[in-house]
Design a protein that fits this description.
Dna Topoisomerase Vi A Subunit, Chain: A, domain 2; Helicase, Ruva Protein, domain 3
């Protein structure tokens, strides 16, 4: 017996929404109903925005960011620090750093992290592009802003080895107690990292 209570067009909308991160089948159904109720003010403009995004969004040939121009807005910004290159795993990580206004450096998106268990090797990532950018000269520091996971740290070590022949300083983000964090609520790994990387007061 079919469980579909709506036409195929609505069911397809629900199935597509359910593929989005954080949305399961029930949340997707609620989101679809909300979009349908707000058809003129939300569903129509969203459909148009998705169509335009599909047609115009490209990957930046320099850093790997996504934008409607190539090079992207960040790479085209002449006010950026050409001497510092921040390496991130994903575009989401780049956006997070930009949201925090943490740096005015240039970026390089790897497109993931090395993961032998998942079959992700160096050839699957934009590591060769990173080495080529450093080899061109002008970069004094490479900041490895990768995730503090096993795969992220494996990637950091691999990239550090590849960059060792070049006269470039390789650093990584500090790991430890977040601003406003209470020790009692932190996991053991974070506390251990914070103790190892303690600094003068």
């Amino acid at each position: 017996m079919s469980t579909n209570v709506a036409g195929p067009e609505i069911e397809r909308l629900i199935q597509l929404l359910a593929r989005l991160p954080g949305l399961g089948p029930r949340s997707a159904r609620r989101a679809a109903l909300h979009l349908i109720r707000k058809r003129d003010s939300l569903l129509g403009p969203l459909a148009e925005a998705l169509r335009v995004a599909h047609e115009r969004i490209v990957s930046c040939s320099v850093c790997g960011n996504v934008d409607t121009r190539d090079p992207c807005t960040i790479c085209a910004d002449q006010r950026r620090d050409d001497g510092t290159l921040v390496v991130v795993e994903s575009v989401g990580d780049l956006w997070a750093l930009e949201r925090a206004q943490a740096t005015r450096a240039r970026y390089h998106v790897l497109g993931g992290a090395l993961s032998p268990l998942d079959g992700v090797g160096p050839e699957d990532l934009n590591i060769a592009g990173l080495v080529a950018r450093v080899a061109e000269g002008g970069v004094q520091e490479v900041v490895l802003a990768v995730n503090a996971t096993v795969d992220g740290q494996t990637t950091a070590h691999y990239v550090t080895e590849l960059l060792s022949p070049y006269s470039v300083k390789v650093t990584r983000l500090a790991h430890g107690v977040p601003v406003g964090g209470e020790l009692d609520y932190l996991d053991d790994g974070t506390l251990a990292a914070a103790m190892r990387q303690r600094t003068a007061f």
